[in-house]
Amino acid sequence: MGRDKAAMEVAGTTLARRVGNVLSEVASPCLEVGSGVSGLRPILDVEQRGPLVALAKASVWFSQHERSGIRHVLTLACDLPLITPALSDGWWSIRLIARSSQSWAATPAACARWTLEDLDLATRAVAEGATAMQELVQIAAPDFVWPAEWVHVASPEVFDDVDTPEDWQRIVGATGSGTRTADVA
Q1: Distances (CA, A) of 5 to 12, 24, 120, 164
Q2: Taking the alpha carbons of 167, 172, 174, 180 in that order, is the dihedral positive or negative?
């Protein structure tokens, strides 16, 4: 995209703050691994080397803080402008949401429920040179929730992420003033 997606604005708020608000409705404590723009407690990640490294950083944070009572960690990518609390709330009971009924390859692995052990696996994977979330998906062996099981809560569009200017235009649209905005639920 050529700029920090977390700081891009939708409906008068940044993508990161919007996603942080959604996450805050269904989880506590809430942390941001990123540039500190979500309004959540930040774990600064100036390198921003992707979601697998972010999970590893979260694992380090959890190892340095009280872990009692925390069994699962929800992860939510900042570039999902259509995500809703209803769908996020369902992540407490699943391991990984599959976007496609044909394959888990298109699964948004950065938007899932992980165990603390999974976060430890992420730390080890990064230490061994892994860079992609799919590498964690392969070693954590998560259960998948297929579209037939979640479609009653949300449409597939909630997983549409903003990776290119064309995605931004398609998902968010333009007002004609050069400022892109939308009324997203």
Answers
A1: 15, 20, 27, 10
A2: negative
Give the β-pairing of 144-145 and 72-75.
unpaired
Domains of the chain (ranges plus CATH)? Answer: 5-171 (3.90.550.10)
Residue 67 near residue 76 (C-beta atoms within 8 A): no
Output the six-digit token pair for 111: 């938007």
Tens digits of residue pLDDT in 3-53: 788 888 888 888 889 888 888 887 778 888 888 888 988 888 767 778 888
- Encoded tokens for 10: 């939708």
Long-range contacts of 168-174 (CB under 8 A, 24+ apart): 168/1, 168/8, 171/81, 171/82, 172/10, 172/81
Closest CA to 185 of 6, 18, 8, 7: 18
Radius of gyration (C-alpha) of the chain in whole angstroms: 16
pTM: 0.74
**Separation CA 54–CA 44 (nearest Å):** 9
